[in-house]
Amino acid sequence: MQQLSQTETYSLSGLSAACLAVLVNAWKSDGEPLFASLAISGIAFAFTYACIRWTGHVFIKRGYKGRDMSKKTPVEIPEAIGLICALVYLLAIVNFLPFAFKRDIVEVTSGAGNKVNLLEAQHLETGRFLHRFPLEKLASYGFAYGTLASMTILGILDDSFDMRWRHKFFIPAFAALPMLALYFVDFGVTHVVVPLPLRQYVGELIDLGGFYYLYMAAIAIFCPNCINILAGINGIEVGQSIVIAALIAFNDILYLLPSVQPHPAADSHLFSMYLLLPFIGVSLALLKHNWFPAKVFVGDTYCYFAGMVFAVVGILGHFSKTLLLLFIPQIFNFCYSAPQLFGIVPCPRHRLPRFNARTGLLEPSVTTFSDDKPLRPIVGEALKILHKVKLLRVQQGDSGRVTETTNFTILNLWLVWRGPLREDRLAVEILAMQTAVGLLGLWVRHSCSKLLFTADNRF
Ligand code: UD1
Ligand code: MG
């Protein structure tokens, strides 16, 4: 690994110093915790950036290394660097605690008897002042930390033992237990608002009971795994995570604008912002090193950790349905992958696009079927239909039997549609598509909810 260049050292030091100054000022002046969160995220970015450089070679020495399969001369680079992000992130959110709760702790413990403070304590109860973060949020914050720390430990386990897909699929459910336990003892709300057209049959609210916990567990399993399987080209794991985080943060801002205050959901969206800003900070530092041509790999630790950050903010912030709208490309990729994930079509260990060393471009990777391992005829017929509607590319033998199919991932499908592309070009196009689909999802969310639920909860 390279050491930091002089420019990098000066830039990172300057950024850290500026962020520290903001932090000191925020503490002294009892300022807005959002600025403190931004400053801590800046420091987290600088620290992650430097740590990746300083410790990359140690990962290789310890055997955490991977071969970049899409390069002319494949070199081994550090793997599982997402661990640095996760650890710096956990450190960042712990250090942010005093800034988020300082004023409330002071109000609650020493405010009694003082008229002004009593007045402020009333606002504190309603939790509608942006700069206030009610003390009861401390539990959500703590359990979010517990869930993310558990996820990081289990991610390291996966990166260390290279577990089989069918085993590691359920790992996030264990990590989500702290969060689900908090939900059980603290909120316990398991009913959902029924859309207008269905109300005449089931009423305005429907209690899902235990199924609601299954639904939350499913989200906790889905978010990390679907990031892990939309992978295999430089920058795509981190890139998609940054896009999702930015889209959630954008949605949060809609609820935090002064024009819609006081808003009952402001707390939840502030909670989400406080968890997302440092995430964006550490992820940008990782992206710089994982972007084409990658100097490090992120590892499953990062994919699980990132997915769980989204599951935590979606579930504890009470906007899990909106969250799913921001995962549309990942949901598509998951459903599209299902035939291979569930063994209907054989699934190779790696499904990432194939690198053509002659052209330097990526092409769709394929799975081939031989006489020893033939494809069931009915599956073959289904693949031919998908080929006809351009959702796959198959090769057929003389007898008309399918002998080869492109692997079932959105990256390969994009290459089927667009033709061979350079690795970074493919990443940019997928991320641009994801951003456009996410923005569309949010637009639909805020315009159609008026039709389905009588009002958009933003107003
Ligand atoms: C998931 C995918 C697998 C894909 C892999 C790529 C499923 C079920 N699994 O497996 O198809 O091939 O991610 O990450 O869909 N690598 C590169 N370039 C990159 C990123 C990764 O060559 O930009 C290679 C490296 O050799 C690296 C390895 O992929 O060491 C990491 O694979 P890993 O994350 O362990 O694979 P899975 O998550 O199990
Ligand atoms: Mg992976």
From TrEMBL:
Belongs to the glycosyltransferase 4 family. Its main location: endoplasmic reticulum. One of its GO terms (molecular function) is glycosyltransferase activity. The keyword Transferase applies. UDP-N-acetylglucosamine--dolichyl-phosphate N-acetylglucosaminephosphotransferase that operates in the biosynthetic pathway of dolichol-linked oligosaccharides, the glycan precursors employed in protein asparagine (N)-glycosylation. The assembly of dolichol-linked oligosaccharides begins on the cytosolic side of the endoplasmic reticulum membrane and finishes in its lumen. The sequential addition of sugars to dolichol pyrophosphate produces dolichol-linked oligosaccharides containing fourteen sugars, including two GlcNAcs, nine mannoses and three glucoses. It comes from Salinomyces thailandicus. It is an enzyme of class 2 (transferase). It is found in: Endoplasmic reticulum membrane. It catalyses: a di-trans,poly-cis-dolichyl phosphate + UDP-N-acetyl-alpha-D-glucosamine = an N-acetyl-alpha-D-glucosaminyl-diphospho-di-trans,poly-cis-dolichol + UMP. It comes from the Eukaryota. This is UDP-N-acetylglucosamine--dolichyl-phosphate N-acetylglucosaminephosphotransferase. Its cofactor is Mg(2+). GO terms for cellular component: endoplasmic reticulum membrane. It is a multi-pass membrane protein. Keywords: Endoplasmic reticulum, Glycosyltransferase, Magnesium, Membrane, Metal-binding, Transferase, Transmembrane, Transmembrane helix. Its EC number is 2.7.8.15. Pfam families: Glycos_transf_4 (PF00953).
